[in-house]
Amino acid sequence: TEVENKTSFIKQWQILNSQLNASNASPMLRQEYDRTQSILGALLGLHWNGSLYEQLDGELRHENTITAVKVWLFAQCCLHPTALVLEDGHWLDDASHEVLTAICQEMTDYPLLILITSRYLDNGHHPEFKLATHPPLLKIDLKTLSPSSLRQQIEQILNGPINDNFFTLLQERTQANPFFSQQMIYYFQENQLLIR
Fold first, then answer.
1. Whose CA, among 21, 44, 149, 173, lies 20 to 30 Å from 4?
2. Which pLDDT tens digit goes with each residue over 144-191?
3. Is the Cβ–Cβ distance between 73 and 84 less than 8 Å?
4. Do 10 and 34 contact (CB within 8 A), yes or no?
């Protein structure tokens, strides 16, 4: 119910707030964490009459939502090193890019690792991420597997040899990408689609 969701949100918010107050977080970060509580709640579909979120117009809601996400993430970083994992980065929309840029502009003071996984675009290029120049950037290209390496990976997962037709199907469907082939094998196993 909405009441249960609000109660759970407030409880979690208070736990992080008390941990934040006991940490070495800056007074400004703690103040922003307090100020943006209703905005964080709104991201989860929770609303309070008369709250800051309810008082803001569209543009200010947008700006404050970016701030709230950034402040929440930095609050986590004040308590422990944090990893933000964004999967399928090639699908990030403009708003997500905007949040990512805002985070990167101020992340140098926090123990934060941002890991973005993505496929290549249809044109074969890397997707572009609007990152500030502050964080060091490392790109790791995961190349396709050779046919012998792909076969070895599949046979290792399945604990035995595979049919040539099945191998050709996997090679074509996954484009010899090691992650895609692994996920396809797991899918076949979970759905009991494989016959020995």
1. 21
2. 889 999 999 999 999 999 999 999 999 988 888 888 899 999 999 999
3. yes
4. no
